[in-house]
Amino acid sequence: MGVEVSTDKGESEAVENSYLPLSTNHRSSSVNSTWEPDGVTFFIIQGLANIGEERIILFVILLLGYIIILGGNSMIIYVAMTDPKLNSPMYFFLYNLSFVDILYTTTTIPKMLSGFLTDMNTISVVGCFLQMHFVIQLGVTEKAILTVMAYDRYVAICNPLRYAAIMTRPVQLLLIAGAWGFSILCTLPATSMSWQRPYCGPNVVKNGWCDLSSVRRLVCADTSVDNIVSLSWAILALLTTGVLILTSYVLIGLSMLKMGVAQRLKAFGTCAAHVTVVSIAYSSVSCVYISYRVVNFSSEVRIIVAVLFGALNSFLNPMIYSLRNKELRESIKRTLSRFRPAAVLRTKDVNTLS
Known about the structure:
mainly alpha
């Protein structure tokens, strides 16, 4: 494909070295922490290149999933922004979540799809680190917006009379800005440290995209500090959002104990979709983490697990909220009914002209 990869011996050595543990110093720590003239100028994303004839099947499945993700989340964004009946803060946060889901999957899936169609899936050094940064940041942003939505549900159930006064539009914008700011804060230290490390070969990324852990295995220096920094910020991001979400629902549960049966059912219906999405989100993170720590998993299995669980939230979120939320379902039906007469009219015009 117009790309030369040194020699067969060098390539096999590259593959072998890229499997080394994260904490292993497999290059001399005396190597300069600046880019060498003869250093890595591009990365090869291995992805699922070794699966053979099943490649086209996975390509079709992934493409269909991506189309559904784009369609479902785009529909939620459209109806939430155009339907005046969906003007509550919950829908404002929901379409921001859908926007993040679209960006997250678009950061990874198109590059993976292109890898199914080529013999060697390459990416520039800058492109690799940009992809790495946005994958991590958007993942944290999703958890932060879910935290904001948990707070919104807490205010709606525990302080219903003050809900409109508390959740004003400036407050909503501030919460969303805080979610993005928090994700940037948690992402920059690890990705900026990885950017400054030397990469002199091998350059084969054992993942479907430029994952931080996979790229770090290619560093030609000691990465012990990098591991500690990235782990610390990852724990901070997950614990902070997880504890805040849990606290919100503990307070909601205590408030529900004082309600009547009808009020409890209404409150549970209000929170059911969000609780389901949060459960899937954190279960997905746990499954991906476990798959990377199980030694006897092949790299292909790890990639498939990462792709499935990484895209699971973006795939299921529109379905979950549509099924659990009557207002959203009715809004989608109204939107589709507005498009249907126009489509029928255009068909009649075409038939008349023909």
